Description:
The structure is a single chain. Helix content is about 20%, strand content about 25%. By secondary structure, the chain is an alpha+beta fold. Strand 15 and strand 16 (about 245-250) form a beta hairpin. The two termini are about 35 Å apart. The mean pLDDT is about 95. Bound molecules: FE2/S2 (inorganic) cluster (FES) and fe (ii) ion (FE2).
Amino acid sequence: xxxxxxxxxxxxxxxxxxxxxxxxxxxxxxxxxxxxxxxxxxxxxxxxxxxxxxxxxxxxxxxxxxxxxxxxxxxxxxxxxxxxxxxxxxxxxxxxxxxxxxxxxxxxxxxxxxxxxxxxxxxxxxxxxxxxxxxxxxxxxxxxxxxxxxxxxxxxxxxxxxxxxxxxxxxxxxxxxxxxxxxxxxxxxxxxxxxxxxxxxxxxxxxxxxxxxxxxxxxxxxxxxxxxxxxxxxxxxxxxxxxxxxxxxxxxxxxxxxxxxxxxxxxxxxxxxxxxxxxxxxxxxxxxxxxxxxxxxxxxxxxxxxxxxxxxxxxxxxxxxxxxxxxxxxxxxxxxxxxxxxxxxxxxxxxxxxxxxxxxxxxxxxxxxxxxxxxxxxxxxxxxxxxxxxxxxxxxxxxxxxxxxxxxxxxxxxxxxxxxxxxxxxxx
Length: 428
Ligand code: FES
Ligand SMILES: [Fe+2]
């Protein structure tokens, strides 16, 4: 349970808010590289942290993320012409480069040099792992480039999608660190989904419904260990990584690709669920890539031409009561992603955390909130760089391991929790 002020603080990320300042300390995913597929292609509207922006790629292939609105009289530059190394406003022809600098003002006499004095707000935009990353904080505090393993392995080993989620970022992220729901909500999919089925670990998930959680602080966030019974008195441990502010990595299953999410606020009532699948030591197979494109695993099928899921709140997520009754799905909604999203969106756009009754399986969520609150306070009051900004904090892995009963997972899985390029994930 949180007090109202705490809930407001964690869920509001617009300009000038404390949590907004925290998010503006990191490189965050802004667009898929496929959205700006070629030089001089159509610009794309981007709303992030409640700021309305426009992304474009100029004639030389440079990426820009600038204020959506023209400095002249405020029309949307989305209508603009992307030509000859700049975006030209469709109203009176003012033209901007990727840094937001006005470079031409054809409606004004050149001798005034007025264009030089006009610059739109802009943020850097760089490509890594098929994702365009931005940093929206003060220019002097720009951190080193992101080094998440999924975005630095060779392109053949990684694939990322994104999906609109119609809820605040925090309730979405909290679903990613709540590994007890897997045994219920997702139980029927573990043995059938092509990106999950066949792993021995699935059986421990399905037979032991009362995992014991052990949550330990990591340099960048938390290790969230969930312990279930295995054979001969041993334990099956699933260790999720949470790195501040909103990166999660789900423990692997068998030799499947490893996956996880970023939850990035669009505004306070919507977020992007970024979903990556990668394998550190081998290319993704054609079958895996086809499954990702078909919306399997943690991905979704889209409303064509959008990043909104085809099963969404306007069609009750294609609820199938017969499948629910027969146990083909636990909730009646198909697929991991929309099983999660349907329930998280059902909480309302911003869940009222003053009314919760948290239980022992919510320890990861409780500790993540406290860590966020602490980091926000230190940042706002003392300017302390928050955990997760340092690329060392980003080189992590989730793990699934069988350990003897007397061995803590922080010892038994110590090396498995660090990303090491030549080593395959620790998985069961
Ligand atoms: S409003 Fe853009 S040039 Fe006039
Ligand atoms: Fe889930």
